[in-house]
UniProtKB/TrEMBL annotation:
Coiled-coil blocks: none
Residues covered by the Coenzyme Q-binding protein COQ10 START domain: 12-132
Pfam families: Polyketide_cyc
Ranges annotated as spanning the membrane: none
Highest taxon listed in the record's lineage: Bacteria
Protein name per UniProt: Ligand-binding SRPBCC domain-containing protein
Family indicated by similarity: Belongs to the ribosome association toxin RatA family.
Native organism: Neolewinella aquimaris
CDD domains named among the record's database cross-references: SRPBCC_3
Length: 155
C-alpha cells in the first residue's frame, strides 16, 4: 500500500504566538480530538512545551472496539513555524504529521496540516483503509476543525 496524504488548512482567529502556545503543548490534543476516540495522554507532559526528541505516549480508541497504545516523537520544530510528529509505536504502519503555522494578520493564524499515513497489515490494511480507516482519519481532522472553532471563537 502506498502511504496516503491528507492536507487540511484551518484559520485560527488568534495571533501566531497564542496559536503556537496552544498547539505546542501536547496536553491540548485531548481538547481537539473527538470524544469517541477516547484520547488519553499517558506520559507526564502537562505544562510542558514540546521539544525535539519529546516522546508522548497516548491510549486511543481509533475505531470502536479497538484500543491501542500510541507513541509519537516530536522530530522537528521551528519555533512559530512548524513541528513534526512521527509515530514510533501505534496503530499505523506509518504516521508522519506536519503542523505548519503562518501569521495571516496581527490576529489571524493559518494552520496547515500535512499528514502521511499508512494502515498496517499490508493487503488487509489496504482493504481496511478503503472501507473505514481513511474515512475515520478524515473525520478526526474535520472534528478537530470544529473544536478549533469552538475553542477560538472570533474576537
Amino acid at each position: 500500500m502506498t502511504p496516503r496524504r491528507l492536507e487540511s488548512t484551518t484559520t485560527v482567529p488568534r495571533p501566531l504566538a497564542e496559536t503556537w502556545d496552544f498547539f505546542s503543548r501536547p496536553e491540548n490534543l485531548e481538547k481537539l480530538t473527538p470524544p469517541e476516540v477516547k484520547f488519553e495522554i499517558v506520559s507526564p507532559v502537562a505544562g510542558q512545551e514540546m521539544y525535539e526528541g519529546m516522546i508522548v505516549q497516548y491510549r486511543v480508541t481509533p475505531f470502536p472496539g479497538f484500543t491501542a497504545d500510541w507513541v509519537t516523537e516530536i522530530t522537528h520544530i521551528r519555533h512559530h513555524e512548524h513541528f513534526i510528529d512521527d509515530q514510533r509505536v501505534g496503530p499505523f504502519a506509518l504516521w508522519h504529521h506536519q503542523h505548519h503555522f503562518r501569521s495571516v494578520s496581527a490576529n489571524v493564524t493559518e494552520m496547515r496540516d500535512i499528514l502521511h499515513y499508512q494502515a498496517p497489515l499490508r493487503f488487509l490494511g489496504t482493504i481496511a483503509d478503503k472501507l473505514f480507516v481513511h474515512r475515520q482519519v478524515k473525520k478526526i481532522f474535520t472534528e478537530r476543525e470544529r473544536a478549533i472553532q469552538r475553542l477560538f471563537p472570533e474576537i
